[in-house]
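Fig. S4 source data, part A: sequence.
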Amino acid sequence: MLLPGKCYRNEQVTARSEMMFHQFEFLAVGRTITLGDMKGTLSFFAERMFGAGTVVRLRPSYFPFTEPSAEMDVSCFLCSGKGCRICKHSGWLEIGGCGMVHPNVLRNGGYDPEVFSGFAGGFGPERIALLKYGIDDIRWFYSGALSFVEQFG
């Protein structure tokens, strides 16, 4: 399933982060779902969103509802992974978080974690749009400036 929603967090507002943002969360639960299924799904998404040859990298992280958990990075589609100002010369862009659904979450949802498994995660569409379209300030999304919206029409 894919669930869109609005999120709030206590964060300093800058050109790259806002105190309010949107997120779409995804969840897949079934028999024998593996970490490989998650990475394959994320790789498919990355290639469709950012172009053929986009590579996904998972970095260990912590999220309370998944174990193991990871930050998802994609190879920088702006510099082809060579390193630029946007990717901070690393060749990678952080896109979102993900992981395998924690057994307690499955249990609380009425699923036996010995039989069922799943993966979950979330991405911010504003961050993806910033990167994909070269938008220099996230605050443009909430500015109400018609000139900003018209450039995409």
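Fig. S4 source data, part B ends here. The chain has a mean pLDDT of 91.
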